[in-house]
Amino acid sequence: MAGRYRLLLEHAQQLVLVCSRGEEYLRRDGAASLALLPEASLVVGLDGCIKAVGQADVIRNQFSGATFERIIDCSGKCVLPGLVDAHTHPVWAGDRVHEFAMKLAGASYMEIHQAGGGIHFTVEHTWKASEEELFSTFKHRLERMRRAGSTLVECKSGYGLNLETELKMLRVIERAKQSMDIGISSTYCGAHSVPKGKTATEATDDIINNHLPKLKELKLRGEICVNNIDVFCEKGVFDLDSTRRILQAGKDIGLQINFHGDELHPMKSAELGAELGARAISHLEEISDEGITAMARAKCAAVLLPTTAYMLRLKQPPARKMLEEGVIVALGSDFNPNAYCFSMPMVMHLACVNMKMSMNEALAAATINAAYALGKSDTHGSIETGKQGDLLIINSSRWEHLIYQFGGHEALIDYVIVKGKVVYQNERCGKMSSY
């Protein structure tokens, strides 16, 4: 097949497709057994999309007359889809390392929160930070996520709580969307906490009457395009009624529902999300049996966050029960000042050890299912013809090393590729090529 193409990856020891039949998500048996090709190659076109996937000799013959901007020999290595981080809070100022010491001494998350720490500490510092300062630190964090293999990241606001600062955060996220080689799904999370001096009802009214109409206006003007709406549905924060009002108002202006629920207390968030047609609900450490059934029936993804349960010493989310009952299980790092983890490989490892997921299930949860949780599994999350060429090359003959090795991904990941363009290259692989 003659013509010019962006990238040829050839002779991969293992090409981990994850999906091979255009699946939107994987659950039960599908997540337990992933599609994989040995001794395979793939081609990415100039438009950044995958043009062909197959056995190395077949691809070589099919593209014998083609020219490529870049050819990478993957002999002895594995190629996987770029990882998808389905839950992060990466735009903020102020360091909360001191709170880690408090947690180690026995203070609970809500005790720190009620004493003016936690979210409120970060809110005060984020208010004071300039847009340029926030963008600089945000860009650095995204680059670290990318080096650890993430090529699509969900990014929330939520450390402003007032309209001005929430918009400042969303502008920073929009700027990264336009200027960086990484996929971003942006989330408005103005209901992350109740602002000081307001009741939950007053905060809810402000969000519905002021914040959301402004977001709709800015989207129509092409200035800020938000994808999802989030609420921290929790005892002492936003109750079920306030959560319902905010999420429905967001849905009414075209936002996907993707919110925090059933983390510290059983709130029946899962049942509410299923009822409202939520795309995803995060945390779910305290989900009810009825909530699991409702989420499975509604095809609402469960975004599980093993770093949070680990760092806060919470009960682990019931991942095995969810998987067995047909819930679409996804993973996220929950990167934030309270859970400082950039690495989806480490998240997958924790999911396997602490939540008893298999490695296949964890990889499905960090690729196709995480993409589904963001409404992007038609373009991301697997290596299939027509999908975006977001890829990961690891220096190992078995892909499971990405999960098996706890930490040290810097030595394991050789290349991270977005739209067929190498955006990270390990030093041992030579200098980066320009396009």
From TrEMBL:
GO terms for cellular component: cytoplasm. One of its GO terms (molecular function) is metal ion binding. GO terms for biological process: L-histidine catabolic process to glutamate and formamide; L-histidine catabolic process to glutamate and formate. Its EC number is 3.5.2.7. Coiled coil: none annotated. SUPFAM superfamilies: Composite domain of metallo-dependent hydrolases, Metallo-dependent hydrolases. Residues 79-423 form the Amidohydrolase-related domain. Keywords: Histidine metabolism, Hydrolase, Iron, Metal-binding, Zinc. Pathway: Amino-acid degradation; L-histidine degradation into L-glutamate; N-formimidoyl-L-glutamate from L-histidine: step 3/3. Pfam families: Amidohydro_1 (PF01979). It catalyses: 4-imidazolone-5-propanoate + H2O = N-formimidoyl-L-glutamate. It comes from the Eukaryota. It is an enzyme of class 3 (hydrolase). Its cofactor is Fe(3+). Belongs to the metallo-dependent hydrolases superfamily. HutI family. This is Probable imidazolonepropionase. It comes from Pedionomus torquatus.
